[in-house]
Amino acid sequence: MAEVSVATRVQIKPFVSASPHLPICRNITWKICGAVASSDSSSSSSCGYSRYDKQTIDDGQVVLPKKKKKRRRVFFLDVNPLCYAGSKPCLHSFARWVSLFFKQVSLSDPVIAVVDGERGSELRRQLLPSYKTHRWKLLRQFSRGHVGRSHGVIKDVFTKCNVPVIKIDGHEADDVIATLAEQVLQIGYQVVIASPDKDFKQLLSEDVQIVMPLDDLKRWSFYTLKHYMAQYNCDPCCDLSLRCIMGDQADGVPGIQHLAPGFGQKTALKLLKKHGSLENLLNIASVRTVGRQYAQDALTKYADYLRRNYEILSLRRDVNVQLKEEWLVPRDTSNDSKTLSNFFKFLEETEKFSHQSGFISNG
């Protein structure tokens, strides 16, 4: 493609003129974009014009359309889920996903890594003892002969890659991310949350996206507001209410199906689309009929059960953590390759040492 400037003389009759019979003449240069094709002969060439740039004329002046300024993004990396292969802690999984994330997703955009704090899920477990009881604790020794803990190793990798690591004791990473994301949005940035955790769907909007690690495809994949609308045919503001009714097996939060077998996702979506939120639905159901009898009975009889689920599954935005200006600068990626390469070598050596120690002890 090439741009060709063509000078021309245009007569423009103004709206108000001292002499209406005398048009104003101005010289205007039009830009014509097209493909320039050269023939085999060096002495000849041809130019094809495929389109004209869209322009407007204001009193003879060419006004180019303004380009929409691209808003900067801030990535939040939910670290803990990346450190598992299935239900088993695995630093190889962490290394693989972080390497792909830096190379293919975040690039030089700011990244804030967040890990679960000590006793982070304690408050929710008081409400529901089964909450996340199946998850293994990551903060433990991951090989014989290594006295450090996984958190220290992970933090070292991020520090060398110029990524701040946030850990707030008494709070889960989800709540810390939700709190910081709110602060990022307030200063005009867009937010991308890197996590496989579907809890973050309740935060989706035009300015909040999710990028998920897909094991089958071995890559990260963006999940946006459009994806959610296409999947559920409703607004993400209903997502939390829907999960309160359906439950969250991954987090050990049971839904209402075992109490009201006929109350499935189709019924839940229909009621939420009509009444908005779970709280609004429960309030209306307490004074009048909102659906079929089995749904009406479930909503009135198990209202406290559903409200408890809401308290457990809703992300908090009031964690005592403050966004720092230095977290928002473009990330220096110059150390990524060396740091991750050394980390992979370290994991291989640790694994060999573990096998050798096991062989000696068994022998």
TrEMBL record:
Statement: the UniProt record of this protein carries the keyword Transferase: yes
InterPro entries: 5-3_exonucl_a-hlix_arch_N, 5-3_exonuclease, 5-3_exonuclease_C_sf, DNA_polI_H3TH, FEN, PIN-like_dom_sf
GO biological process entries: DNA replication, Okazaki fragment processing
Lineage, highest ranks first: Eukaryota, Viridiplantae, Streptophyta, Embryophyta, Tracheophyta
Molecular-function GO terms, alphabetical: 5'-3' exonuclease activity; 5'-flap endonuclease activity; DNA binding; DNA-directed DNA polymerase activity
Occurrences of domain 5'-3' exonuclease (ranges): 72-331
Taxonomic source organism: Rosa chinensis
Alphabetic keyword roster: DNA-directed DNA polymerase, Hydrolase, Nuclease, Nucleotidyltransferase, Transferase
Listed name of the protein: Putative DNA-directed DNA polymerase
